[in-house]
Amino acid sequence: MKSGAKTLVNVAGLRLRSHTKINFNDRIVSYAYSQLLAVNGGLLLHAAAVTKGKRTFLFFAASDGGKSTVAAISKSHEVLSDDVVAVRKVKGAFYAFPTPWRQSGFVGKDLTAKGKIRAIFFIKKSKRIHFTPLSGARALANILSGQIHFFSYTSQPLIKEIFFTAAGLVKRVKAYEMEFTKAGDFWPKLEDCLSGRR
After folding, report:
1. How far apart are CA 108 and CA 119, in angstroms?
2. How many Å apart are CA 106 and CA 32, to the nearest integer?
3. 114-164 pLDDT per residue, tens
4. What pLDDT is stored for residue 26 in this prediction?
5. Please, what is the Cα angle at 153 between 149 and 158, to 5 degrees?
6. 90, 98, 135, 175: which could form a disulfide with 139 (CB 3.0–4.6 Å)?
């Protein structure tokens, strides 16, 4: 890279310039990414994100909990992430953004993409497809217990910022527990759930 040259980096809609090529596999860089999001009303989350039409949905789970499976079932829609997603509040609404980390081949590569979040789901593998509404308090507790990257390494005052951002997300967006099967298309029942036809 020539002296003085800059690399343009898109971080959840924030356009930044770096004088060196950024290695996003470096844990320090990943940590800095999460902190930059927090300063700008954002979160770096363990979640898959899928956009269907003009609506985006987040699917939370622990490692091997089914995020990539849900994303694979959703390949006919726009998959923003199957594991790590950035969420940021923009003009009063919460949006999901892709991240630079390597994910499955069917995940979109456009880092400028974004989707307005319609609902969030805490998923678990099951023998049936079923949805249970969650209170905002329960959804917030679920997010704070292990779904935010580097949360345990963050110090004040950013912990407070992250808490209020997560609280704002569950206040604006409905949350559900979602049971799903590996072989089943859950989307029809998801739509029934959101429309009140459960």
Report:
1. 20
2. 27
3. 999 999 999 999 999 999 999 999 999 999 998 998 898 888 889 999 999
4. 65
5. 85
6. 175
Long-range CB pairs of 63-72 (<8 Å, 24+ gap) are: 65/123, 65/124, 65/125, 66/123, 66/124, 66/125, 66/180, 66/182, 67/123, 68/104, 69/125, 69/180, 69/182, 70/123, 70/180, 70/186, 71/104, 71/106, 71/107, 72/104, 72/106
CATH number of the domain bearing residue 156: 3.40.50
151 dihedral zone (left: phi>0; alpha: psi -120 to 50; beta): alpha
Nearest alpha carbon to residue 86 among 28, 150, 22:
150
Structure tokens, 79: 């998959």
Q: Which domain holds residue 64?
A: 27-195
Integer CA distances (angstroms), 80 to 6, 96, 190, 195, in order:
26, 8, 18, 24
CB 85 within 8 A of CB 121: no
> What's the token pair of residue 149?
């990257």
Beta bridge partners of 190: none
Q: What is the number of domains present in the chain? A: 1
**pTM as predicted:** 0.88
Contact 44, 150 (CB under 8 A): yes
Overall average pLDDT of the 13-37 stretch: 72
4 assigned to some structural domain: no
Tell me: pLDDT of 103 over 80. Answer: no
